[in-house]
Amino acid sequence: MKRILVPTDFSEHAEDALKVAAQIAKKNNSEIIILHMLELPHQSNDAIMGGISIPESMLFMKKANEMLDEVSSRSYLDGISITEVVKMDKPIHGITQISKDYEVDLIIMGSHGSSGIEELLIGSNTEKVVRNSEIPVLIIKKNISNFDAANIVFASDFSEEAKKPFKKLLNFTQLFDSKLHLVNICTPNSFKPTHIAEKAMNDFASHFDISNYTTQIYNDTNIEKGIINFSNKINADIIGMCTHGRTGFAHFFNGSISEGLVNHAVRPVITLKI
Q: Which of 23, 65, 149, 175 has its CA 20 to 30 A from that of 221?
């Protein structure tokens, strides 16, 4: 893992994400790109029409760079290669472009995780990043002084389309020598006989060179509760989930779960696009 992107709005939650990024970077000798998106009304060509003037824009840019300098001087970032970027653009466009320009391997974002998708860092734009990013996005919900990825849950229907995001997850697990817990959540609305669910998971796993994993079937009233309850049961460090860019947030199992999983799960969540 060469480069990690951490978008920041200088909030406490963004700081939590940066602290986790620092721990991952030190373990893997990675570079961290700290990005602040400066979205100003009536930028540049509209300045003459009474919007934000060019001098005012430059003042905002200067202040943002000063704040980034302060963030980059945090002691927990000592010894890490840091690149600071301030970009005037809409968050989704800017984050996507910087990810491509710097060939980023992982995006780490902070989340309030309390009351709806709009509470995520950078508001509803985070939903767009998670939905559209070809790069894995790790969402951090709280301050984690000792980040660990020893046990990772991957919940899926283990269909053909889940193989692409699973390959990305494997790259992540190899960095931490993680144990994978493959789980099929069985609910009244998505019931599968045990022998069929087990065969689907075993056939899926056989396509990959993995040995440190388990397969589980977990029953619950709905998929979201099942993932959270199973993760609590095994004391998982991270929850892995697929997203489907063409149909909205957190789509998998040939359907969708509510964005409540990201908001209600206290544990870090890594999202991977199908």
A: 149
